[in-house]
Amino acid sequence: MPQIIDGKAISATIKDELKIKVEELSAKGIKVCLAVIQVGNDPASSVYVGNKKKACAYIGIDSLAYELPEETTQEELLKLIKELNDKEEVNGILVQLPLPKHIDEDEIIRAIDPKKDVDGFHPQSVGALCIGQPGFVSCTPAGIIQLLKRSDIEIAGKECVVIGRSNIVGKPMALLLLRENGTVTVAHSKTKNLKETAKRADILVVAVGKPKMITREYVKEGAVVIDVGIHRNESNKLCGDVDYDDVAPVCSAITPVPGGVGPMTIAMLMHNCVEAGDIR
Predict the structure, then answer these.
(1) 0.90 exceeded by pTM
(2) Which ranges in the chain are annotated with CATH 3.40.50.720?
(3) How far is 205 from 199, CA to CA, in rounded Å?
(4) CATH superfamily of the domain spanning 139-262
(5) Which one, 50, 66, 136, 137, has least CB within 10 Å?
(6) Which residues are catalytic, by number?
């Protein structure tokens, strides 16, 4: 039986650690505040925003919610971001993605002050990660590193394969694994012989966006498999990019969906918010 990497339990531990840190900051007169902006009422986004508010309440940081109508213009959104950039009491700004089609996501991300970019999406944050400088790191990849470390899985010297090259998961994931002294290959939909590439991995991170695409044919015996995907199958049950039942018997450790990577994303967002409060 593989080790089941329990993201729920690990994220709960991180949130408890952050709660203590927030109490310590509060004792020094430092308040931490996250502003969350949602444009439109996409159901999945509403769930994520609700979970972020609950996490803020749990660890003791203030949250400001801006729920804007679908027809909000780009200019109106940029004006709100500028106001929040200028508000000293706001430490973190998060714009829930995806945005409506008439708004340029790139421009919105660039408008956020990098010192308040708790999502870690600003080009300055990404550039800092590339050259090993301090800065906020995208929450999902940062959460995966914590999952590995807190499950006593060694990264240094390991062959790591990341399937997926998105700016939010794949690319920063590869950089973080490199930072931890992993030997990293980034694969994607255009990779030739993807199965053979994936099968080299001691640590396989899958962020490909296709339900149950990764079967045991992609996985080396004894590998660690991290599944970033989240989908609903034909029975409306949650599943990942990895065919869990097929892969679990051949790997040494695996994240379930749900309850693996997902809870870590919000835990690391809270971590970034507390960092933002601590460094101002």
Answers:
(1) yes
(2) 139-262
(3) 12
(4) NAD(P)-binding Rossmann-like Domain (3.40.50.720)
(5) 50
(6) 52, 96, 119
